[in-house]
Each structure stands twice: as C-alpha cells, then as structure tokens.
Specification:
The complex is a heterodimer of chains A (276) and B (329). Chain A is built from seven helices and nine strands. With 276 residues, chain A is of the alpha/beta class. Chain A has a five-stranded mixed β-barrel. The N and C termini of chain A lie far apart (46 Å). Chain B is of the alpha/beta class and 329 residues long. Chain B has a single domain, classed as pyruvate-formate lyase- activating enzyme, CATH 3.80.30. Classes of the chains: A alpha/beta (276), B alpha/beta (329).
Chain lengths: 276, 329
Amino acid sequence: MIEKNFEGVSVRWVIALKGEAEEIIKNYAMKRVATTPFPVYKNKDLDMWLILSGIGQLNAVAATSYLYVKSDASYNTIWINFGIVGSRNFKVGDLIQIDKITSSDFQDNYYPSPSAFKNNNIERCNLITVNKPEKLFENDGAYDMEGYGFFSFAKKIAPYELVSVLKIISDAPGTDLSKVDKHRVEILVSKKIQFIEKVLENLLDLQKILFLQLRDPKYFDEICLQKKFTFSQKVTLRKYLTQWQARFPLRNPLEEIGQRMTASQILKKFSDNLLR
Amino acid sequence: MVDTIYAEDEIIGTKKAQEIISKFRHAKVTSIKRFGEVFNPSNQNFRIQKTNPALILAKKQKGFVLDAPKGFGIGDQNNYYFSHMYNCLYDCSYCFLQGMYNSANYLVFVNFHDYQNEIEKTIKKHKEKKMTFFTGYDCDSLAMEPITNFINDFVPFFSRYKKALFEIRTKSINNTVFRKHDPLANCIVAYSLMPEALAQILDKKAPSVSARIKNMKYLANKGWRIGLRFDPLIYCSNWKAQYADLFANIFKEIKEENIHSVSLGSLRFPKSFFNKLLQYYPNSEELSFLRSNDKGIISYDQSIENEMNEYCRSELMKYSDARKFFSCG
C-alpha cells in the first residue's frame, strides 16, 4: 500500500475509458472532481489523480497536458497510461508492461526505462500505437491508440523513469470487439489489480530516490525568507547548504548569519567556512 | 545482473553481439535503430537507472581513437584513448560518468575490429614516436571482461605493436584473462587506488583496496607490469595518515621493479557535472570540500591540491623512483 506519510507521493493516471479506469478509481478511492473538458478523479488524502482522456493519441496528449496543469503536477510525478490493447502473441487477460513504443505515424521510438520493470515479473512487450482499432495484428506486440501520444508528452514533464505504460490484453485476432464491453473490461482489470499495485509500488520507490535528490537542503527556505537572494545566489546558497549539511551536521547555519548581513555576505561567510 | 538488452538492428546479428546476448539467457532483448534513442534522451536519471542498468549493444560509427587531454600521459610523446564501452559496473561516488551521461545503462560498442583498424593506422602514421593507448576511462574494461572479452581481443592485438603501450585502467580483481595470455611487455594493468577507509565509502560495488593489492601482486608475479593510479586524490580529515598507510601497504606486497608508473591526479569536475553529483550525494563529506574556480572548474582549493600532491609524492619517493611519477592532467 502507499505510504501516506511520505510527502513526495505524486501519481497521475491517464486512461482512455471509464470501463478501463473503474477498478483503479475504486482501488485508490478516487472521487470525481471535474467533468469537462475531461472527467478528472482525485484521492482525498494523496496527491493521486486520474483523467479519462477518451480514445486516440490527440486526446491522450490533450488530457495529459490538461491534467499536468490542473493538478499542478511536479517534475517528480509518476505518470501511468493504463488501458486495454489487442495482441496476437499474448492471451486475453494478460497484464503487460511496455518497453518500446512505436507509432504508425512517426519515426521516433520511445523506450520506457527498465528501472520501472525491476523485480515485478510482469511480461514486457512492445506497443504499436495506431489510429483505428487494429484487426490484422500483422506484428508481434500490443496495439493501442493512446500510448505513443501519452509518452511523447509525459517524458517532457517527468523523468523517464517515472513514466510507465501498462496494458491488459482484451482482444486477439478474431475477437468480436462488440463483446469487449465495459463490464468485461472491468473484470479483466479487477483480476490484475494486485499486479498493477505492485508496478505502482516499484515506481513509488523510484520516486522516493528522486524526491530525496530534488528537495532543498535544510534551512534553505528559512534563510531565503530572512534575506533577499537573487536567482543565481539561491543556486549558490543551495549548493553551500548541501555541503554544509554534509560537513557540519551539528552546526546550524542560521547561527552564522548576523542580523545586518546581506545575501552576498552570507554566501561569503558560508564559503569561507567550507573552505577548510 | 542485466535483465534488459537493447541491440542496434545493424549489429544484432553479429558474432560479437550474439556472443554477449547469449550470456544473459533471461534478459529481454529489444531492437533499436541507434543507441542514442535509449542512451541520449535528457530527463533520464542516472542514479535511478543505476538501480537496474540495461545493456546496450551498438556500433561505434566514428571517433574510435581520440587524443588524450594535454598533460595526460605516462611518459610517451603521443597519448590516445579509446572507449569500447560507456559506463561502469561499479558505482563510485566521485565518478565523472554520472555527470557526463544522461544514462547509467552499459553501452558496449561491439565493432572491435574498427577500433583495431584505427589504432593500427595511428601507430603506422606516427611510427617514429612512442605512444600510449589508454582504455578504461569511460568504463572499467576488466570488470566487464566476462561479458565483452575486450582484453582477450586486444592483448593479442597489441602484442603485434611493441612500441605502443596499452594501458588498462581498472579496479577489478578479475585475473582470468591474464592467466590465458603471456605477459605483454607493452601492456600496463593500471590500478585505481585510494585509502581503504575512503574506498569503503566511495568505491561502491568495487573490490576492496586490499583485494586490488592482492591481485596486483598476483599479476606482477606472473610478469604483468603494474601501474599505480592515485587519481583522484581524495581530501578528508586524516588524509595524510591514510595515504601513507596505503603506500606502505602497496609496496610491502609489490616489488618496485614490477611497477611501470605511478600517477597522481586531483579531483576535478566541470561545474555541470559537479552540480549533478551534489544532487545525487547531498550527504557526501568528500564533496563538501570542493569549490568552483575562475574557469568554472570544480576542484579543491589550490593550496589543498598542492599540499596533497607534494605530500603524496614525497611519501611515494620512499618506495619508488620519482622518474616513474606522472601527473594525470
């Protein structure tokens, strides 16, 4: 389960249809917080949001960017595109994690980070994003209609390692697509929910590593409140305070600051102390 | 060890690529057009990738042999380096690769013959001059030997060019390959070393310093020539005693005549590399002594650098001929 008291938790789900999202919404106790232009759901206590993008790459990109802004997602946010796919080489009901994404429209390929696959024993597969439902399945892999668009945008707003595409096989060659209805999809997802949780837990572990890398050093906010620092001075202050913490863990840098000192005098004081 | 392999379409069918792939029976192999698709994207996090690095097999297209930086060398007029691999099995906190690359994945260029052709051309072009070819700066070649067979391929190659020195820079204690070949007079097995206590903190996943010394002794006794590389020198509270102990321990085990060269280098980074390192290791006391100089290079204060260099040189002179000493840049 998600560690609620860890301040860095931040998760966004981008899912095309309600049927695909229903079990995730239930499992993570999310409630609807917006209806247009896209339905958006949110967990009350956690920074976890879900958006229903609708079908297609354009919708996936639009919804991802909309959720990015609406939910004020930080750089250190996990982004997951989840949904159903068709494949000729997997069984209906299989959960797969995508390790290569190609598009019928674009030359570039994307490769979600293997860090996200570590120890989860979930089958890995390439994804081919197409513009209309696939019936021929000419190549091995999974066919969807959103993954490429989602990933092309999500990789710009979050680290590669936190962007994941997770799919469940819903159809194979010969499947009567009219029978792949909301109820059937919900059943497929519910059977795999514990594995989906596992993928998320792994991503949360990676997020923790990043959170610790990105957070400001101790006393940074207090010192910035006391004096006016320019942007580049803040960069230097951040660096000095990080070094200070490592070198003088028992010395409070606030005690080094005299009341009348300017920002540059404070930096000089820290620099002099750190020199030897 | 590796559960994901990316292989360029152009080389996936080559003998070398297949040889490497066959060593990872459980890895998922994914084909790629060019290694840059996986290795180069920005927005990747080196530290996270280091938790589960993938292996990328690719073809090097150009830049097989490069000039070594000015001032870098172990006595020869011309100095070159070449890298058949980027990134390392080990995880040393001060390693510049973390600042240099976006990715921690192991990238191996499998077209060894193209490297050998270029080295051959370079040797023939400057046949009057003495030259050294360095390897193991963008990776630890010996550590990855069981996978790549790089040294197994290059030792026989360099045996044909006696005037060209071949330096293998390493922390690995793998000596299998050196048992397979006769010692080569123009091959230096150069060990990166630092005091044990520091290595325990900083040289993560690398063999202990005592194990490295033991292996150096083994190789030296077999007839291989040894290089000692104290690069970087690391400043800490009792560095003098620690380095003095280290030197004493090395020369207690290894005869001076087996030492080809000794080099010392300071800890230095371009600013952008250092900022990344500080983000990765906010609690590192060792990084807390580093400062930016006027040229945008991060290093110890000049007085610290000088003191360390002078002290270490004078300590080393107790055991070895100063003519064997060189500076790493």
